[in-house]
C-alpha cells in the first residue's frame, strides 16, 4: 500500500469522511457510502493520479442525482488534479438571507433599476457601505461577489501583491515596508518600470506565490485532517446558530454564544495564524468590528492550522517567520492563538476552539469563514470557505441588511 493510500485509508477508518448534512434541498442518494465502503474504495483504487481519477468517478456516481457534500466535491477536485487556486476547488459560495432582489423589493424598484441615496431607507453610512463601486447608486452589480466579477478578480490580484510586500505578514503595510520593497525592485534606480514590478510580483502556478503550490498528496492529507477545510457542512441560512462555549486566548473568561444573542447581531470570524490570506484579510474585519461596535457583536474563533510545518507548507509563511507544527493539545493551540492575537492586533475577543475542533466542525469554519447571526440566533449570512470565500465586504453588506431588516421590522411594529 502506498503512503497516500495508507493515509487515506486510516483517516477514512476513523470516520473523518462521513457524508454530512446537505446545504441544499435535493435528497441524498438512498445508499450513502459508509466509512468502511469509502475505505475499501480507496484501497481498491490506489493513490496514483490515474487511480485517484477513478476514485473521483466512483464518488460522482455515488452522488449522481443528489447534492454532493462540499467535502466530497473538494476530494473529487483534488483527485482530478486541482491545486485549489481561486475558482478551483474551494466549493461553496456564500449564502445569504438578504440579496439585491430583497433590497430592491423593499424599496419598490425593479431588479434592473437602482437605488439612489435620496430614496434609500436607511442611514447614509449604510448606503455608502452597500454602494461597492462608489458610483452613488446601489444596484445589482454591487452585490455580485462571484469569482467571475471583475471587482473580485482584481481584489485577488491586489491581495496577492499586498502579501508579497507585507514583510511582517501582519496584514498592515508600513511606509518602511514599501520603501524596502522599492529599493529591492529598483536595484539602485530612482524609479521602477512596469516590467520590474511584474517580475517581482508575478510567479508560481495556479495563482500561488512561489513555493506555496501544493502537490496532490499534501492536499488529500490536508483535507482529511481538516486543515484545508472541515469535512462537515455547517449551518445553512435561517438555521439556528450552533451554540458553543469557548475560552478566550488569554484564559480570562469563557464566552457562550447563546448568552450573546438577543440585543445585537453577531459576526463570527473563523481563522488561523498559518493561513496567509487570512492574515492579510483580517485587519479589514477588525476595522469593521470597530465601525459597528455599537450595532453588532464580533467574536473570533481560532481553529486548526491550515499550513503547519508538518502539512501544506507555504514558503510565503517561512519568509515572514511563521513556522508552526500543528498543535496536538489545547495548550499548544492556545499558545499559537496568542501569537496570532498579538501579531494581528485583535480588538475583538479571540476564542480558542478545543483541539478536537467541535466549533470549527459545527460551523465548517476551517480554514477561515465568516458568519452573521441575527438577534433571534439564526444565520443570515454564511460566507464561502476561506481563503477565497473569505470576503469582508460581502459580509459587511449582509450585516448592513440584517440591521436594516431589524430596523424596518421595529418601525413597523411601533406603528
Brief summary:
This protein has 415 residues and is α+β, with helices and mostly antiparallel strands. It has helices at 3-13, 35-45, 49-62, 70-79, 100-106, 124-130, 150-165, 175-186, 194-201, 216-224, 276-291, 315-319, 330-344, 358-362, 392-414; strands spanning 95-96, 115-116, 137-138, 245-248, 254-256, 266-271, 297-302, 350-352, 369-373, 379-382. A hairpin with a 5-residue loop joins strand 9 and strand 10.
Architecture overview:
With 415 residues, the protein is α+β, with helices and mostly antiparallel strands. It has 3 domains: 3-79, no CATH class; 96-143, no CATH class; 211-414, Glutaredoxin (3-Layer(aba) Sandwich). 41% of the residues lie in helices and 9% in strands. The chain has 15 helices and 10 strands. The chain has helices spanning 3-13, 35-45, 49-62, 70-79, 100-106, 124-130, 150-165, 175-186, 194-201, 216-224, 276-291, 315-319, 330-344, 358-362, 392-414, and strands at residues 95-96, 115-116, 137-138, 245-248, 254-256, 266-271, 297-302, 350-352, 369-373, 379-382. An 8-stranded mixed sheet has the order 1-10-9-6-7-8-4-5, with helices on one face. Strands 2-3 form a two-stranded antiparallel ribbon. Helix 1 runs antiparallel to helix 2 (35-45), helix 1 packs parallel to helix 10 (216-224) and helix 3 (49-62) packs antiparallel against helix 4 (70-79).
Amino acid at each position: 500500500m502506498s503512503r497516500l493510500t495508507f493515509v487515506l485509508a486510516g483517516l477514512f477508518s476513523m470516520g473523518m469522511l462521513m457524508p454530512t448534512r446537505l446545504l441544499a434541498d435535493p435528497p441524498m442518494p438512498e445508499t450513502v457510502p459508509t466509512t468502511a465502503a469509502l475505505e475499501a474504495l480507496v484501497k481498491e483504487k490506489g493513490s496514483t493520479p490515474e487511480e485517484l481519477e477513478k476514485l473521483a468517478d466512483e464518488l460522482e456516481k455515488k452522488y449522481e442525482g443528489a447534492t454532493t457534500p462540499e467535502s466530497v466535491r473538494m476530494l473529487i477536485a483534488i483527485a482530478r488534479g486541482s491545486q485549489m487556486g481561486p475558482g478551483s476547488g474551494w466549493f461553496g459560495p456564500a449564502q445569504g438571507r438578504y440579496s439585491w432582489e430583497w433590497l430592491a423589493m423593499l424599496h419598490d424598484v425593479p431588479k434592473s433599476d437602482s437605488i439612489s441615496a435620496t430614496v434609500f431607507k436607511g442611514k447614509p453610512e449604510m448606503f455608502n457601505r452597500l454602494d461597492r463601486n462608489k458610483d452613488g447608486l446601489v444596484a445589482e452589480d454591487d452585490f455580485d461577489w462571484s469569482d467571475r466579477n471583475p471587482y473580485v478578480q482584481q481584489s485577488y490580484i491586489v491581495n496577492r501583491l499586498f502579501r508579497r510586500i507585507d514583510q511582517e505578514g501582519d496584514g498592515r503595510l508600513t511606509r518602511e515596508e514599501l520603501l524596502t520593497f522599492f529599493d529591492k525592485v529598483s536595484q539602485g534606480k530612482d524609479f521602477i518600470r512596469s516590467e520590474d514590478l511584474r517580475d517581482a510580483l508575478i510567479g508560481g502556478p495556479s495563482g500561488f506565490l512561489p513555493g506555496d503550490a501544493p502537490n496532490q498528496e499534501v492536499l488529500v492529507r490536508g483535507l482529511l485532517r481538516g486543515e484545508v477545510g472541515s469535512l462537515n457542512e455547517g449551518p445553512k441560512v435561517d438555521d439556528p446558530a450552533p451554540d458553543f462555549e469557548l475560552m478566550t486566548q488569554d484564559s480570562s473568561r469563557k464566552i457562550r454564544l447563546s448568552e450573546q444573542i438577543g440585543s445585537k447581531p453577531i459576526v463570527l470570524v473563523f481563522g488561523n495564524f498559518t493561513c496567509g490570506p487570512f492574515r492579510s484579510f483580517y485587519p479589514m474585519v477588525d476595522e469593521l468590528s470597530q465601525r459597528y461596535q455599537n450595532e453588532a457583536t464580533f467574536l473570533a474563533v481560532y481553529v486548526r492550522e491550515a499550513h503547519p510545518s508538518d502539512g501544506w507548507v507555504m514558503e510565503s509563511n517561512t519568509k515572514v517567520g511563521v513556522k508552526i507544527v500543528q498543535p496536538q493539545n489545547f495548550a499548544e493551540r492556545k499558545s499559537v492563538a496568542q501569537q496570532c492575537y498579538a501579531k494581528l492586533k485583535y480588538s475583538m475577543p479571540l476564542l480558542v476552539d478545543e483541539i478536537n475542533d467541535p466549533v470549527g466542525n459545527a460551523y465548517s469554519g476551517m480554514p477561515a469563514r465568516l458568519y452573521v447571526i441575527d438577534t433571534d440566533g439564526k444565520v443570515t449570512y454564511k460566507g464561502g470557505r476561506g481563503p477565497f470565500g473569505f470576503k469582508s465586504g460581502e459580509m459587511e453588506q449582509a450585516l448592513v441588511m440584517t440591521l436594516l431588516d431589524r430596523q424596518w421590522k421595529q418601525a413597523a411594529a411601533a406603528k
